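Posted in: Protein Modeling Q&A

I'm a second-year student putting together a small comparison for a lab meeting, and my supervisor asked me to include a predicted structure for OsmC family protein. I've never done this before, so apologies if this is the wrong subforum. The sequence is pasted below exactly as I got it from our records. If anyone can share the structure token output, I'd also love a short note on what stands out.
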Amino acid sequence: MEDRHTYNLDLEWQKDRIGLISSPELNEKITVATPPEFPKGVEGIWSPEHLFTGAVLSCFMTTFLAMAEYSKLEFSKFDCKAQGVLEKVDGKFKMSEIILKPSIILNEESKTDRVIRLMEKAEASCLISNSIKSSVKLDFSAIQVSESV
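Accepted answer (user: helix_wrangler)
Welcome! Here is the predicted structure, written out as tokens:
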């Protein structure tokens, strides 16, 4: 794997506070807008805040899945919820915190401690988490670890 990669995006303003993000490397486009909490914000459209939170969430997932595969961890289901916290700090809005709430169904209940350690390692290794100022926290209170049926 090379040490440097680039990811190209284009944005085209559509109307009001709405734009369309695309990439010459991808087929799908994403409509984005100012979130409804802000003046002239638009409901029901992905916002930069959603995409920011989604970048952390998807990086955690892909890093965890790679580590789980390498570690030969067997599971039948994995999902994760994320909450991005936007707040005003020193007079400026910032995404101060991302809370990840993973859930997994393991093939063996005895691997619970191992999966939690692996998730902590995945979060610590996530390149997006390592590239931002926001704190990223794992919340295992929602984790549902049980043997598959």
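A couple of things worth pointing out for your meeting: The helical segments are 48-70, 112-125. DSSP finds two helices and six strands in the chain.
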